[in-house]
């Protein structure tokens, strides 16, 4: 038990760093981490619990990082609203839908999502190289803010990933530098985290083991947050002058590592 909590604490620390640098809020780290710990013990509904716990952790991480980025003046209101409202609507739909798929299917969909995202960002122009720094960023269209927002929220809550993996490329291709796109991912993850956590906490059937609220593992969430919250506070104080292209490549590299970990876990379970 202690070793599992220590592992989650360590991943929580790493989550704090990626929340500030990439706007992940924790999803791409907390889902594999919680899944691995649970799969190594009882394994029952490990993926559903991992996704539910991830959304709970993101509530705190995303809010904390949002406050930090707002104080630093990195948030642009026009890219947050009304997109965040429709992201929240989609998050509810995604969280409800996740309860109707098997644990194995959810695991494979998580992997498929990573493959598609990585492939899209590598093949399509605009993510790694960015746009002309002299050009003004383009505003989001109405369809992107409404229909696109619902889609982002649904996928993010369904997989427990916060939405940054969709919003960062979207904002990047709108002409924003990587640092600003990653910063904006935090407030756009807040509605996913809040709505998703509520849905998973009230999900039926709930997990009846001690330390659970619905499908959320409160003990795992606490261990992760003990690592992430102080790390977010520390990371935001460090000077960050990462070249834009390096920042974008680091984002893709991190997703690649998560993909390898999740694929490996498929064979471990078999």
From TrEMBL:
Protein family = Belongs to the 4-toluene sulfonate uptake permease (TSUP) (TC 2.A.102) family.
What Pfam families does UniProt report for this protein, alphabetically?
TauE (PF01925)
Chief location = membrane
Transmembrane segments annotated in the record for this chain: 46-67, 79-101, 147-171, 183-203, 215-234, 246-268
The record's subcellular location field reads:
Cell membrane; Membrane
Q: How does it sit in the membrane?
A: Multi-pass membrane protein
Q: Which GO terms describe its cellular component?
A: plasma membrane
Which organism is this entry from?
Answer: Nocardia terpenica
UniProt name for this protein: Probable membrane transporter protein
Q: Mind listing the UniProt keywords for this protein, alphabetically?
A: Cell membrane, Membrane, Transmembrane, Transmembrane helix
